[in-house]
Every structure is written in structure tokens, then in C-alpha cells.
Design brief:
single chain, about 230 residues, mainly alpha, two-stranded antiparallel sheet, 8 helices, about 5% strand
Length: about 230
């Protein structure tokens, strides 16, 4: 298996020095188009009555599920986290699920994509924390229980961001390669089973990433109670 087979970043369609278009970007654009188009189709005729389309009903079930999970995990009102966490969950979910489509390579199988998603969580932590607690109380939390802990707390923030990116990348990439190998060995035996397993794995990975995002982001805001 060559380097080109490890990550979709290595498949380049257009290169102009520092700017290039690779397979990861193309697959990401496809997911974005599908999400934007799907959102427009579902929301263009929203109903507030008892009768609603199946897609609107499915969307409301998904939003309700996310709200319940955020509330249970963070023990805080879910609305302030719903937009970010929901966007991360849906993007990862759709990317992973589309991996069962022949020829589609999930953008989450690229470390650059998972790193970008993890950085969204990394920067969201201080933004939500400062908004909830104020600049001073939030920054002082890095020096607890004493100022000597400052570098260790900063290192902890960086290491968990790296772990968030590598975990998602490793799981999606490894499963994609295993599926490709098994299909090459026995294309008539494994497809149905692997597709079902791929759907399950994609959902689980999206859920785990969203849960960890909720934990990290809400922790900075929840600590405001300790400042009082």
C-alpha cells in the first residue's frame, strides 16, 4: 500500500504551489453541497401543525436527540451549544455514512480534516468559557490549584485536541482501508455486511466526537460555579 493510499490528501487534482485541490477537498465540498441542499429542501416548507413531512420529522427527532444529549452531559441549557455541536455531529455523520458509497472517500479519513474539526473545539472552549465566566476568571482556571500548573494545563488542552483529531482520523481511515482490502479479496461475500458495519461505525464515531466536544466545551463554562 503506497503513500497515496494512506490519506486522500495525497491525491492531487490541481496544484499551484501553496494552493492545491486534493481528494479531501473535493469530498468535503460534496458533503457540504449535500448538507446545504438537504437543509434547503427540508426547511423550505416547514410546518408547525400536526402534519409534517417525514424529513422534517426526522430532523426534529435529530435535534431533540442532540438537545437531550447536550443537557444530560453538560448539565446546562443545550441551546448555546447546539449549533456548534450539532454541526460537527452532522458533518462527521454524513461524511462517515457516505463512506459506504463506492468511490466515495470520507473526508474524515484525512488527518487535515479531523485536525480542523478538533481545532474548532479547541477554540470554542475559551470562547464559550470567556462568554460564560469573563476573561479573568476563565484565565485564572489555568493556574489551579497553583500557578505552577499553568504549563501543564495548557499542555493538557493541546494534547486532548491532538487526541480528538487522531482518534477520529485513525478509526475512519483504518476502517476504510480494511473494507477496501476485504472487498478486493472477496467482493461477493463481504459487501452487505461491511456496509452495515460501516454505517454503525460511522454513527458511533460521530457520536463519540460530539460527546467529547460537549464535555470539553461545557467544562470551561460549568466551572463558573466554582468561581462564585
Amino acid at each position: 500500500m503506497g503513500e497515496r493510499d494512506i490519506t486522500p490528501d495525497q491525491t492531487i487534482f490541481w496544484d499551484a504551489g501553496f494552493v492545491n485541490i486534493n481528494l479531501t477537498l473535493v469530498m468535503t465540498w460534496i458533503v457540504m453541497v449535500l448538507l446545504i441542499g438537504g437543509a434547503w429542501l427540508i426547511t423550505r416548507r416547514l410546518s408547525t401543525g400536526a402534519e409534517m413531512s417525514r424529513w422534517q420529522n426526522a430532523l426534529e427527532v435529530l435535534v431533540g436527540f442532540l438537545r437531550d444529549q447536550i443537557r444530560e452531559i453538560s448539565n446546562q441549557p443545550p441551546d448555546r451549544y447546539l449549533t456548534l455541536v450539532g454541526s460537527l455531529f452532522i458533518f462527521i455523520l454524513v461524511s462517515n455514512v457516505l463512506g459506504v458509497v463506492p468511490g466515495f472517500v470520507p473526508p474524515t479519513a484525512s488527518l487535515s480534516t479531523t485536525t480542523a474539526l478538533a481545532l474548532c473545539v479547541f477554540f470554542a472552549v475559551p470562547i464559550y468559557g470567556v462568554t460564560a465566566r469573563g476573561v479573568g476568571p476563565y484565565l485564572s482556571s489555568y493556574m489551579r490549584p497553583n500557578p505552577f500548573m499553568l504549563p501543564f494545563n495548557i499542555l493538557s488542552e493541546l494534547s486532548r485536541t491532538l487526541a480528538l483529531a487522531v482518534r477520529l482520523f485513525g478509526n475512519v481511515m483504518s476502517f476504510t482501508k480494511i473494507v477496501a482490502i476485504l472487498l478486493a479479496v472477496a467482493p461477493l461475500v463481504f459487501p452487505a455486511l461491511l456496509n452495515a458495519l460501516g454505517l454503525l461505525t460511522g454513527v458511533i464515531q460521530a457520536y463519540i466526537f460530539a460527546v467529547l466536544a460537549i464535555v470539553y466545551i461545557s467544562a470551561g463554562s460549568r466551572a463558573q460555579e466554582a468561581d462564585r
